[in-house]
Structures are given as structure tokens and as C-alpha cells.
Amino acid sequence: MITRRTFNGLAVSMAALGTAAPSAVFGQSPAAVARNKTLIVAVQAEAPVYRNVGQANPYSINNEDFRGSIINMFEPLFYYNSNKNEVIPWVAASLENNEDYSSFTVKLRDGVTWSDGKPFTADDVVYTLEMLMANGKGKRDLTQSSGVADAVKAVSKIDPLTVKIDLTKGDPRFAFKYLINYFDIGLQWLPAHVWRDVPDPAAFSFFDVAKGWPLTTGPWKVTRFTDNQIFMDRRPEWWATKAGLATMPAMERVITIPGGTRDRMAQLVAANQVDIVNDIQISEVMKQLVTQNPKITTFTGKDAPYGAKDWWPTSLYFNHKNEKWADLNVRRALNHYLDRKQLIDTAYAGASEPKYDPYPGFGSLKPYIDAIRPIADKYGIGHFDKAKGDELMQKAGFVKNDAGIWAKDGKPLSAVIEAIPVLNAIGPVVAQQLKNAGIDASFRSTPESRAIMRDGKYDLCLFGHRGSISDPYATLENYHSRNALPVGQPILLPARWSNAEYDRIVDEASKVPPNDPRLMDLVKAAMEIWMREAVEAPISEWYHRVPMNQTYWTGWPSEQDPYMQPSFWYTSGSFGYVMPKLKPAS
Known about the structure:
The chain is α+β, with helices and mostly antiparallel strands. It is 26% helix and 19% strand. The strands form nine sheets. The protein has a six-stranded mixed β-sheet, covered by helices on one side. It has a five-stranded mixed β-sheet with strand order 23-22-24-18-25. Strands 7-8-10-9 form a four-stranded antiparallel β-sheet. α10 runs parallel beside α16. The longest helix has 15 residues. The radius of gyration is 24 Å and the shape is globular.
């Protein structure tokens, strides 16, 4: 299998790949598969081991652990390639809408089958939507259920391969929210013949190796799931090969392990022990990887920025449910205290660009980004100006104490900056810049940080946006008041900001189709409020700096062949499209 190797003097053994005796096991000991027929993935887990062993319910709130592997078994109706702004019909053959976007008709592809051989039909789509609708109107303990319940009025089966979805109101973006999968957007479809008798969908793990669960339409079956490894083995048949859409994957097994720290993942991929890992992020480390190991490549080959631009531009978020940030002057001051050039030079060796807005720098969004740049300049968003920051802090009633910390009524302004591990490179620099300006700031990133941020129990946090790709509306919607939940109610979007005037503009924008000229004025009006209120402090563009090892597998996505984004950990399951395109190096 995998031989013992060293990298920069550090031994990386079989134990590093998580093959030590597990504390919890689902599945028997599968037969051995040669290394050159195995794809090994190291995923950034929320803890050193998987904490939800045997969880294969794609709508479970605790579904983070299997995002990097099992989620790629679930196939969407449509894939979306953000590199080409291209929709790829997959389980579905076509999608139509009526004139006011209040009704959508999905035509499914004939011949699609579940892994138990039963056909994938309209019953499965109807069941999945109705289950989410019922949950969203009741317990709301399934991901995406609230949004589906709010959007869908009724779903009906026209014939075995045709589904009609009627909405509560016209929504030109419904398909891109739920039916077309990209990054963390899009639904996973469930086999009605298994799920319809489940009394509590949120409590159902959908995992049983003996029964072949989870059933999916993809070419994989799970044969082992422990707290330190997941095995997906290739099935003998796959509907997509019969349909001529894809060839059978060349790898016979996919193993996913918790990758640990960025340093550890870099060591594993450099030692040829894994084939792909999460974002390494630090440009100097990426440069070292591609220089020292000729088999390692990135989306941009061996050249900076060593990755692909993503929809996740980074910001320093204020918790708007925390009274510390109620004063607009304080929020504006912290924005002025951030030196974005220094942050990018220090954390990313200069291989990124500063941000003045919450939009990713994709070409289709450039007209909007250009249009709102003057608004950012007007309010100083993205502008480093320590003197201006000091002036605003004084205006807010703060004075510096003997320790050089801003204080009001004798109480120093302190803040813990929470972040997930992928932002560990930039977090300490942000904290130091704020500390230098007189904010008693510290940085913290632990396995619990994501939960703390989701529950709104943080002071400040570093996070990205998961919003727009080609249409500016999705990012606008992130800041609608419906996302400003009370502290303690979990939500992925961290700001918890609300503004009635902003809501009215966004509600109007929701009715305007993408690329409609009227959308520009609405975006500018919404961003006028967003910038004026200093909702957050934008920092930089985000690049997925993903090293891909070609020792065993070639054909990775690249600038020359951008057939899909290379990120494998998203709930869209887009890496399921990549795996069949990889070829043995030999």
C-alpha cells in the first residue's frame, strides 16, 4: 500500500494516514487495493478525527465531516462550472420556467438508477422537496428546509420523468439556489423508497454498509467509515457510462482522511502519500511544494497565485448582535485600522488582491464591482488610515488608557477574533494590526470555532461570503434581515445585521432577472447602505490554493483545462464530476 517516506526530515507513516485502530467502525475490513488504483484525499476536518462517524444524511446539521468524501457520491440534477459559467445537465436533461418564474419544470434523464438498481424518478425529486417543505414548516432541523419551505408552494409529478415545481412567488434565481449545484449551493436527492417510511428525517443517519446505504446514483459505495478514514469503493455499474456522459472512474477506491493542520497536509501531499488536500493557502508553502516536488501542480500550474479564484472573499465580520459594535464610528474605525496590503504581503506573499466590497472578482461581476467602488471610496471602506480611525474612536467617546488601549467609561475595548483553520495565516496579523491601533484584540481558531461563529457567540470573526458567482443578487441576499437570527440560533452567515431600507431594495432586486439592466441601480442602492453602515471590513480576494499530486493521477482541473473547480469539500458534490476524469499516471 503506502510506503513510509520523509519530507523535510519529518516521517509520515501509515499512522499519519489514519490507519491506526479506530475507536468506532462502520463496515468490515475491505479487500486491499493497490496504491496506484486508489485516490487518497486529505480533508480539513473540524477536529483531528471525524466526529460524526456513520453520518450520511446530507441534510443533517452535523454533516461537515463527510463533505470531502461521501457528499461526492450524491449527484445533482445539474452541475455548474464556475470557470466557464456553464450549466452541465446531469441527472436531469432539461429545465424550463414560465414567464414570471413562478413555476419550473424539470425533465429527468431516462435510465438513471440508484445504487440498488432501482430507477431514479420523479417520485424521488417530489419526495425530497416535500420532505424539506414539511420540515421547514415545522421543526426546521434540516439544512435548507427553511428556504425550500418559504420558496415552494407545491411540487407535482407530471409523469415518471417530469416534475413541476410551483413557487410561492416568482423567483428568477430559484434554479440556481436549489436545482443547480455549485460550491455549497444545491440540493441532494434522496431515494423515496428508503426515506418515505423514516419517521424523523433529522435523526436518520442513512448509513448501513450491509444495506448499501447511503444509496446514491453515483458510481461509489461506502465500505468503511471510522473516526480516521472513509472508504468509497467503485461499483461495477454506473448509469452515466451507459448514457455516454462519462467513463467509469479509473480508481477503484477513494480514501478520505482527516488532514489535520495545513503543515501536515503539505507534508502528506509532498511525500506522495495523498493525492489532493484542502487549501494550503500560504503562497510560500505552495511555492515550496511545486518547486521541490515536480509531480505537484495547482490550478495555475507552478505559477502564482497557485490556485483558482473562489466565491469566498475574506472579511472581518462584526457581530451586530453584540453591543460592542453598535456605534457606527467604532465599526468605521476598525475598517481604517486594517492595512490590507500588509495583510496580503504577510499572509499570502502578495498573491492576492485587496477587497473593498463583498463580491468575488469574477469577470461577470466586474461591472458591478466597478460601479460600487466609488461608494466604497466615499465611505472609506477598504482604506487604511490610522489617523482617521483614531478620530472616529474619539468621536465614539473612547480615550486611550495607560496601556495604550481604547477605553470608554473606564472599560477597555477588547475583542476575540474567531476563525476556522483555513484563515490561520491571516488571523494573527489582523489581531496584531488592531492591537497596534489600540484594540485589545486576540485571535483564536479551535475545533469549536465554526460552532461559535454559527451560534453568533463571537466578538469579531474572519470568514468568507459564499454568495454571488455571476449574478450580484446572492451576495445582497446574505445581508437580508431574515439572516439576522438571535444569538444561539445557528446560521452560516455571520453578520446578523438588519436594515429595513436595505431589505426593501433586496426584495425588489429578487424580482429582477439576472442581466436585467435594472439590477445595476438596485445593487448600487443596496451597497450605498451597506457601505454607509460599515457592515463589515472587507480584506482580500480568496484563492483555493490546492496542491494536486500527479504521481498516481493526472488530468486535474487547470487553467488550460478548466472543466470544473478542483475543490472537493463542497456540499455541491462537484468533485464527483472530477473523479471520473482523472487518469492513472502510468
